[in-house]
Design brief:
- This protein is mainly alpha-helical and 226 residues long.
- It has nine helices and no strands.
- Helix 4 runs antiparallel to helix 5 and helix 7 crosses helix 8.
């Protein structure tokens, strides 16, 4: 609708108007689903709210992680080598106690090795990297790094707890067991699919269900030959 009306501005108001125009002009294209599914909707409504809460917590964790990466880059870049695939939990636990290179050096090998997930060998490597740092970090920045690391760990702990809670509620559901029998689908994915799909019969075919999740393939072809 936006392209057809030659609109280039995208705001919430413009998007809402485009959706309204589409609903008005193409009512036959709109599928509101099976109206008989009110029982399933009420059955899984609270479950979807719970999943939304977990997803919101995960987004907050990602935002905190992005902030932490910037702080590490600015004030303790020597340990970035350990962050190729995200910030590991052991590094976050280290930063809670010792948020900069000088703090790590003051702590010494024994205390660094005592942090869960590090050990003596890794502690020596961390101290070697920290000893090459000349970065001066204020107590205020150290506090920010420590608090941010603690909050990321807290968010992950909260997410894990809520996922376990959901598993306890839905792992015995017959449809969850059926979904888990499909190779590649684990318990968390099966529960999420159950709560979103509600009842497979509300989708006329697989294409409509794929469209609902936004993963349907699209085909584009041009006659131009190069």
């Amino acid at each position: 609708m936006s392209d057809a009306t030659l609109r280039r501005t995208i705001t919430d108001a413009v998007s809402a108007e485009n959706i309204a125009c589409y609903l008005i002009h193409f009512p036959a294209k709109v599928d509101y689903g099976d109206q008989r599914l009110t029982m399933h909707e009420s059955e899984f409504k609270e479950g979807r709210q719970h999943v939304n809460y977990i997803n919101m917590s995960n987004k907050q964790k990602v935002q905190l992680g992005n902030q932490m990466e910037k702080l590490i880059y600015q004030y303790f870049s020597e340990v970035l080598v350990y962050c190729r695939h995200g910030i590991p939990g052991w590094l976050l636990r280290l930063l809670v106690k010792y948020p900069c290179a000088s703090a790590v050096i003051r702590a010494g090998e024994k205390k660094v090795a005592a942090v869960f997930g590090i050990g003596p060998k890794k502690a020596k490597s961390i101290l070697a990297k920290a000893s090459g740092s000349s970065q001066m970090v204020s107590f205020q920045v150290q506090h920010i790094i420590s608090v941010t690391a603690r909050e990321i760990l807290h968010k992950q702990e909260l997410i894990d707890e809520e996922r376990l809670y959901l598993q306890g509620l839905y792992q015995s559901h017959k449809w969850v067991k059926l979904l888990c029998s499909i190779i590649g689908i684990g318990l968390n994915s099966a529960i999420a699919l159950l709560l979103e799909i509600e009842d497979i019969h509300r989708f006329a075919n697989a294409k409509k269900m794929a469209s609902y999740f936004g993963v349907h393939p699209t085909y584009k072809q041009s006659e131009t030959k190069w």
